[in-house]
Amino acid sequence: MASHSFPRSSKEPWVTVTTPVGAEGGVWLLEMHNLPDNRLEPEFIKQAMLPALDFVELSWHKAVDKGTNKGGALVLTGERVKGKFFSNGLQLACLAEYPTFFKDYYYKLLARLMSYPIKTVAAINGHCYAGGLCLALACDWRICRPDRTWLSMNELLFGAPIPAGMASVLQTRLSEPVVRKVMLTAHKYTSAEALKDGLVDEVVEGTGSEETIKKALEKAVQLAPLSETGVLRAMKETLYAPALAQLAQDEQLLIGRPQQQNEDAFKALLAAEVNAKL
After folding, report:
1. β partners of residue 151
2. C-beta of residue 178 within 8 angstroms of C-beta of residue 133
3. Cα 198–chain centre separation
4. Percent of the chain having pLDDT more than 70?
């Protein structure tokens, strides 16, 4: 089983890409190793995630060019040693140093997955929160373990409004009532609830991280032939055009601004109350 690590120069890989034995038909497995909880930090995205996606796509193109295989699929999963987290989302504390984080890092990653030229499957093998949930939703298919997994857009609970790009991904994948539930209640989903509301497409019968990845690889083999004609990227770009256009926009981190708006509105209303009494 061939294995490739990213960043290339790092002794401790943040991402590994393998071609699992038995997963025939041009299937690649991308594992995130940004321990302890696979936070989608700027350098993790720039130096590991995006290069890994480039590597997989190049490998697929080479296989097509050689005539060895035309189909292709990618499975994206969290670390599998403990199997505790798929991804715990963004690391907000470090984003002040990266003013173009959304447009040049995180949104580039989401857009890359949403328009990827081969089929993509998220093997949600652990907890999946906020930006991590949007990452899973950017994939074509989502398979979730039944145990030890919570899924939530929990920004409402810690005062971080969900940016328009992330909201566009939610609106693309989920029904309007579910989007309202996800964004405006910060509901903490079990795997069964996530299946019912369409956050995931399948819940595996067997428990544990490995069962989830195994099922995702089987699904990837089934989906791989759909990449053979080479039109998947064009199809996705048409289908997801509104979300992709929003992900191309430059957005700034808004933590604190809504609270300031509330304070300004409160002052304005107090002034209006005083004027009304006069």
Report:
1. 128, 189
2. no
3. 15
4. 90
Q: What is the pLDDT of residues 67-86, one digit of tens each?
A: 888 899 999 999 888 889 99
Residue 96: per-residue pLDDT:
83
Contact 73, 227 (CB under 8 A): yes
Domains and CATH numbers, the chain: 3-277 (3.90.226.10)
From the number of C-beta atoms within 10 Å of its C-beta (0-12, 13-18, 19+), residue 11 rates as exposed
Q: Where are the alpha helices (DSSP H) in 115-190?
A: 131-137, 155-158, 164-173, 176-185
Length of the chain: 278
Q: Compute the distance between CA of residue 118 and CA of residue 73 in angstroms, rounded to an integer.
A: 5
Q: Is 254 helix (H, G, I), strand (E, B) or coil?
A: coil
| CA nearest neighbour of 187 among 159, 151, 146, 160 | 151
More confident residue, 179 or 66: 179
| pLDDT exceeds 70 at position 261 | no
